[in-house]
Amino acid sequence: MKIDYLELPAIDFAAMKAFYGAAFGWSFEDWGPEYTAFSDAGLEGGFRKTDAAPPRGGALVILYADDLDAAEKAVIEAGGKIIEQHEFPGGRRFQFTDPTGNELAVWTRS
């Protein structure tokens, strides 16, 4: 079995589309008022409508970037909040929250 699809909760679809479109260039297709699919992310997925931010500490989605500094700048400019940055043997990464409060990370090789 392989991971086939990724689904994230979203309080505000417009804010999520604006953020992920600006920060990472993802594109979107609405499937009614409760669901928006995304593509151009390396893995297909979607945002499902929710009324509350997710709790911190669940599974962590990690994106890869050739230029970590440019990715961090794009996340900040799109309205994301950087919550952690660190180096590890072989690379660096930062973690951020999106407009709904989902926590994701971006890493690169050093």
Helix content bin: 10-25%
- Secondary structure: number of strands: 8
Order of helices and strands: EHEEEEHEEE
Shape: globular
Report, as a whole number of angstroms, the end-to-end distance. Answer: 31 Å
Which strand order do you get reading across the main beta sheet? 1-4-3-2
- CATH fourth-tier homologous superfamily: 2,3-Dihydroxybiphenyl 1,2-Dioxygenase, domain 1
Average residue-wise pLDDT: 95
* Structural classification: alpha/beta
Q: For the CA atoms, what is the radius of gyration?
A: 14 Å
Instruction: From the 3D structure, determine the CATH topology.
Output: 2,3-Dihydroxybiphenyl 1,2-Dioxygenase, domain 1
Largest sheet: 4 strands, mixed
Which spans of ≥5 residues are poorly predicted at pLDDT below 50?
Answer: none
Query: Helical region count?
Result: 2
Please give the domain count. 1
CATH architecture type: Roll
The CATH class is Alpha Beta
Tell me the β content.
Answer: 35-45%
Structural commentary:
The chain starts with 5 loop residues before the first strand and ends with a strand. Helix 1 runs antiparallel to helix 2. It is globular, with a radius of gyration of 14 Å. Helix content is 20%, strand content 41%. It is an alpha/beta fold and 110 residues long. The chain has a 4-stranded mixed β-sheet, with helices on one face. Strands 5-8-7-6 form a 4-stranded mixed β-sheet, with helices on one face. The chain contains 2 helices and 8 strands; from the N terminus they run βαββββαβββ.
